[in-house]
Write a structure and sequence with these properties.
11 helices, 14% strand, alpha/beta, single chain, binds nicotinamide-adenine-dinucleotide, eight-stranded mixed sheet, 284 residues
């Protein structure tokens, strides 16, 4: 099945990024946001990103206009009726995602593939909330979606081979390097990455070094492009906490038990770059 029309649900960090990637590679995109404000913000983010690419000489102004013209932002889920693929990218909360999958199942044409961009949650549970579990899989983009090469394509035990083949082909058509992985919490990258990020927070909490010191050490000593606190702020501390909780739920491994400081920052609304304050302050 060839995928030409893509629905994206959720206009946060990832929804907006995936919309840009899909539109830039020739797909027609219907992006659903819960509010008109969210839809407008997403359109403005896309316009700003494309303008920057034109300014840097990476795209012509005509090409940028064509890409923007392929994205239609809406507040109505019903407009996803005839898309070939939906990628949901709403908050990392299983009950919200299951409700959404049930709703999408009742709205979309019977052959539409329903995919989730979840970082850790069990895809099979979303599949079983629908009447078409064989057409449900994970398509997990990385942040920022336009820049990162990897897409994890997640195979729940309920998925058909043809669904996986279509998802892998879609990721490749988006210019990405997909890797297939089974439906286990954290898939490949987050299962390996989050114990490291969590232990960095523990080290900060214990006063071993400053956040700047830990970030500088991991950049300079391991060649990482950014340190753990800059990365946590980029991912979003609420999303990071939800990822750790899902990993802990699945494996009961103490390395996945979120360090209290992370939970306290989330409780205080300091979520990272998206709220302009997390481990670092982005207000200035
Ligand atoms: N941030 C990352 O680095 C990253 C990377 C890969 C995958 N993901 C995954 O992508 C998904 C979205 O993450 P994000 O970083 O874009 O988050 P975000 O906080 O930037 O955006 C979340 C979106 O969900 C919507 N939302 C919140 N509550 C909702 C509800 N009850 N019903 C419907 N929509 C609701 C918000 O309006 C917003 O559009 C999550 O599943 C996350 O695990 C995140």
């Amino acid at each position: 099945m060839s995928i030409e029309r893509v629905g994206i649900v959720g206009s946060g960090i990832m929804g907006a990024g995936i919309a840009e990637v899909a539109a830039a590679t020739g797909h027609v995109v219907v992006l659903r946001s819960r509010s008109q404000q969210g839809a407008d913000a997403m359109t403005a983010t896309l316009a700003a990103s494309l303008a920057k690419q034109v300014e840097k000489g990476k795209r012509s102004a005509e090409e940028a206009a064509e890409i923007a013209g392929r994205v239609h932002a809406t507040t109505h889920l019903g407009e996803l009726v005839d898309v070939d693929l939906v990628i949901e990218s709403v908050v990392e909360d299983l009950s919200v995602k299951k409700d959404l999958f049930a709703e999408l199942d009742s709205i979309c044409k019977p052959e539409t593939i329903l995919a989730t961009n979840t970082s850790t949650l069990p895809v099979v549970e979303m599949a079983m909330a629908t009447g078409r579990p064989e057409l449900v899989c994970g398509i997990h983009f990385f942040n920022p979606a336009p820049a990162m090469a990897l897409v994890e394509v997640v195979r729940p035990i309920t998925a058909d081979d043809s669904t996986l083949a279509a998802a892998l082909a879609f990721a490749a058509a988006c210019g990405k390097d997909p890797v297939e992985v089974k439906d286990q919490a954290g898939f490949i990258v987050n299962a390996l990455l989050f114990p490291y990020l969590n232990n960095a927070v523990r080290m900060l909490e214990q006063g071993v070094a400053t956040r700047e010191g830990i970030d500088a050490a991991m950049k300079g000593g391991c060649g990482f492009p950014m340190g753990p606190f800059a990365l946590l702020d980029l991912v979003g501390l609420d999303t990071s906490l939800a990822i750790l909780d899902a990993l802990y739920d699945e494996f009961r491994d103490p390395n996945y038990a979120a360090v209290p400081l992370l939970r306290r920052l989330v409780s205080s609304g300091q979520l990272g770059r998206k709220t302009k304050k997390g481990f670092y302050d982005y207000q200035r």
